[in-house]
Amino acid sequence: MVRSPDKVTRIFGADLARRFEIVAGDMTDEQAVSRAVRGRHAVIHAAALVALERKHAARVLHENRRGIEIVVGSAAAAGIERMLYVSSVVALCQAGQPSITTETLGDATGSAYMRSKVECELFVRSLQATGSPIRTTYPAAVLGPDDPGLSEANRGVLAFFRDAPIVTDTGLQMVDVRDVAAAHMRLLEAPTGAGRHMLGGHFLPWARLVDLLEEITGRKLRRFPIPGAILRASGVVADVVKHVWDFQFPLSHEAMRFMTQWVPVEATPADNLFTFRDPRVTLSDTLRWLSAAGHLPADRLGQLRLDAPP
Questions:
Q1: CA-to-CA distance for 108 and 65, rounded, in angstroms?
Q2: What residue ranges define each of the domains in the chain, with the CATH number in brackets?
Q3: Which pTM was predicted?
């Protein structure tokens, strides 16, 4: 189910798009969702409205809550045995907690997006508690090539590499988009049943991330060491400014708290069926794609350039 069938053709090409049976609609359109799930063997809910501006807060809360109620709720009501809800590690994270596991719960007093993810999580857990065979996955920051647009995580790595390699407290929790896809396929093919699965990938301290970028490109990057407390204070100031000028740049106290106070996630024994490729591969492929897609000048790639000798 998609909002724009034309976009499917544009992204996948006409030949591949013709292989799909497409239902046009929105996740909050109850009739369209009902048509989309009817007669299916499996349902994956991976849609969410992500908007950072304060003016969209009410819409984010409403649409994400309604989306989970309608899509997952309709699938459960239809008795579909394979249901997969793609959540996020942010639904499990709040300040001060010693660890992040599939049993923790995020901060319901944060941004509208954060609150919506927590409320969606509570809804799914309530269905799981009554026996619905829903599996939830919690991807970290999803990076990788062939992005249909430019996701927040890929945009963040682009800015970090191109403009400001900031070295501060904690680090980046990242996972390759191809590993996320493979994990979802394995879960759909596994015996039915409820479950929660961490897709944390790898944790890289910020200094280590710069090390890897230098290693794979052969370039020396200028590092900007900034204490976490200063970044969090900048986020507080940005939150105040947004009351007057509602800019979209992802500078907020919540974002800076995640950046400087992140706790590495803990995988469960059940997650041993997933494998995560070397972060060097993910970063190399992502930078090459960013350049090929026109987001990054080729001369920034150093030895990664497509025309560089092997």
A1: 13
A2: 39-304 (3.40.50.720)
A3: 0.91
